[in-house]
Amino acid sequence: MPEDLYYSEEHEWVRVEGDVLVVGITDFAQDQLGDIVYVDLPDVGDEVQAGSVVGELESTKSVSDVFSPVSGEVVARNESLDGASEVINSDPYGEGWLFKVRAADDDATAALLAPEQYTALVSS
């Protein structure tokens, strides 16, 4: 599990890249879902609120909501997932990112979990 990310209790991760936050799902989440076959993501320009449902992932096992771990404006979505959603399973922390948000405030990651806190959450 990458040490340079923040994590949500809903199993999303956040990477800070300047004033943009990249959002994806954790390896734990993709493992629980199984083979992901369809992705529904927020559109560029959408305003998202931390903790709100912004999309869904469909796998061979179930359909799972995608929550935004931060509030702000969606500035990019991973269009390459439209035809290759399985990348989320093979590379959840890299090419399998979901969307990018320009944060609504400077301390957008303050309510998120540090890597060791997330590890404790999934270990319990």
Automatic annotation (TrEMBL):
Chain positions found as N6-lipoyllysine: K61
Record's keyword terms, sorted: Lipoyl
Pfam families per UniProt: GCV_H
Cofactor: (R)-lipoate
GO BP terms: glycine decarboxylation via glycine cleavage system; protein lipoylation
Leader sequence segment: none
Domain Lipoyl-binding: 20-102
Cofactor remark: Binds 1 lipoyl cofactor covalently.
Record-linked InterPro entries: 2-oxoA_DH_lipoyl-BS, Biotin_lipoyl, GCV_H, GCV_H/Fam206, GCV_H_sub, Single_hybrid_motif
One Gene Ontology term, aspect cellular component: glycine cleavage complex
UniProt keyword Cell division, yes or no: no
NCBIfam families reported in the protein's UniProt record: gcvH, PRK01202.1
Subunit and interaction comment: The glycine cleavage system is composed of four proteins: P, T, L and H.
Family: Belongs to the GcvH family.
Protein role: The glycine cleavage system catalyzes the degradation of glycine. The H protein shuttles the methylamine group of glycine from the P protein to the T protein.
Protein name as it appears in the record: Glycine cleavage system H protein
